Amino acid sequence: MHRAKAVKSKKTWQLRRASLFLGISVVPIGISFGLMAVLINNNRVLHALHNQKKAVSAGTSQTQQATKQPTKQPTKVPAPVSVTSPQKPSSPLAQANPPDSTGVLGATTNMPIPSSGVYWGIYTDPNAYFGDFSLAHREAVIGNAETNITRKYDYDRQFFEWGDDPFAASPTPNTYLKWSSSTAGHYMDINLVAANRSGGITTWAAIANGSQDAYIDTLAQDIKAWGQPAFFTFQHEPESLICPGDTLTGCDLSTYYGTTGDYKAAWQHLVGVFRANGVNNLSYVWQTGSYRWSYPNDYRYGPNNYPGSDVIDWIATDPFNSGSPWTDLSTLITPWYNWAVNQGKPLMIGAFGSQEDPNDPSDGLRAAWFAAGEAAIKARPQIKALMYYDNNPKITGKDNWLLFDGNQASEAAYKAWGLDSYFNTRNCNTTSCPGYTSSPSSSTPSSTPASTATGSQKAGTTTTTPGSSTSGQTGSSKGQTGSSNTTATQASLAAAQAAKGNIKGTSFGMKVVIFAGLTIAAAIPLSMAAWEYLNFRGISFRALLKRWRGRILRLHSR
User: What is the pLDDT of residue 170?
Assistant: First the structure.
């Protein structure tokens, strides 16, 4: 009896040990499968980027300088939509003010205007870096960009569709705006379009005639309560949305938004309602594409869409080098600049980008494009803000403007551009931008004196951007210029990329070593589990081998 109990106890412990070793092996096996998934995903990403380069080299990328005309005219001819004056009383629109004491071009703006130098901004599309629009991923994407260039951006952009409330509790665009402007300490560029999330559009005439005032009033009150100075753009790049021929006759208002007159009236009404609600913390930015500025006889020619100096504070354009033909930044912006510089407003590059050179794996041509672009902006001192459009065709199906894709030559040139003191007027470092501060006035919009804090501002300034983190360092990045050593820049960039885990991530050799180690770590407890289970079943290892050898010989004899 005692012997039987002892045998049963031994069997029980053998089974328990087998289960324990099997459980231990699950951990390295799980990590191994996770690593394999990462490797497969990285290969998929790199393959996608490679295919895009091939597509660009084959000439499939679309040029932003091409004249786009509708291929099919709609057959439905709606009745003309009349544009009436605003139905509700509004305060008089403030007129542009003369230049302030620093010599900066005057504007009815509550964003401080650099007396010298340029704000450095970025829009990073989270889908461009193979993620989603969750707050955590969006934070990681712009954090990765700032790690790569070793400084914070001055300002950030958030797109909103008609009907969105940027300061509601949800969805993600709203929470991101509040995070970026408070925790991250960026100035914000709020970009509102007349498309809505149901897939429809709100015509510009409907905005102008007062039928949308309930939404505009709510939006205005929330922006006023928020109180932080920000850029505000309505319907950027309107050229492709204007009715063909600039007429409502034959215009499909489910595709197009109206005429140039409708667009200007919508701008005027929107700003009028905002000011009637006491909103005094916004600077209104008119933002057009750059490709129509060379065609003054085209109905989409930029000045035809200008809402007027009484409502517009900053004038912006969006130049893009699509690579076909390869066009430098100076050439892209010159027609716009020659007109805009005479309007008495600070100027902005609202969004810009360049393709990679499909025939140059080292990406040296885009690096040279960035270096020349830096010089082009410096030669035009009325330009006071600059934003890169960091996106790729994963969701757009169009041109690839992706910035942080592992091409170190162009990334190093872009980083050197951002570290030039002329483009770091707020002395931004890796944790904060300790330069400018601004408090919205309680009166109607008026000229905000440009801050005297420039690239030559003394280090150690403790004033902070509204909503910016006060726990950051106050050291200055000035002194790092475009002449930074390229080798050192590339080395620091590579280290930052590895630390943030971009699409190249850890080296292939290291991944192989890690995978081999995990395999061994899983094999040992699996072997022990098998040994204990065989003992539990009373099967010797030698007998098992003999049994399998016999089976193999029988199969071979057949």
Answer: 58
Structure tokens at 77: 């001819």
Residue spans of the domains in the chain: they are: 2-56+507-557, 103-500
The H or E element that residue 159 is part of is: strand 155-161
Q: Strands 187-193 and 230-234, how do they pair? A: parallel
How far is Cα of residue 448 from the mean position of the Cα atoms in its chain?
28
**Rounded (10°) angle between helices 508-537 and 541-557:** 100
CA atoms of 33 and 414, how far apart (whole Å) = 37
Backbone angles phi, psi at 168, to 5 degrees: -75, 170
327: left (phi over 0), alpha (psi -120 to 50) or beta: beta
Based on C-alpha coordinates, what's the Rg of the chain? 30
Residue 479: pLDDT above 80? no
211: which 2 tokens? 């039928």
Answer for the pair 260, 83: CB distance below 8 angstroms, yes or no.
Answer: no
Residue 275: per-residue pLDDT: 95
What is the total residue count of the chain? 558
Q: Please state, in angstroms and rounded to a whole number, the distance separating the CA atoms of residues 146 and 499.
A: 13
C-beta separation of 91 from 127 below 8 A: no
CA angle 166, 354, 378 (to 5 degrees): 85
Rounded CA separation 309/234 (Å): 15
pLDDT in tens, 350-385: 999 998 877 776 778 899 999 999 999 999 999 999
103-500, superfamily in CATH? Answer: Glycosidases (3.20.20.80)
pLDDT digits (tens, 9 = 90+) for 99-111: 222 323 334 458 8
Sign of CA dihedral 148, 154, 159, 163: positive
DSSP tally for the chain: helices H, then strands E: 13, 9
Task: Tell me how far apart the alpha carbons of residues 34 and 400 are, in angstroms, rounded to a whole number.
Answer: 29
- What is the DSSP track for 230-256? EEEEESSSGGGGBPGGG-STT--TTT-
Decide if pLDDT at 246 tops 90. yes
Q: Is the pTM of this model over 0.70?
A: no
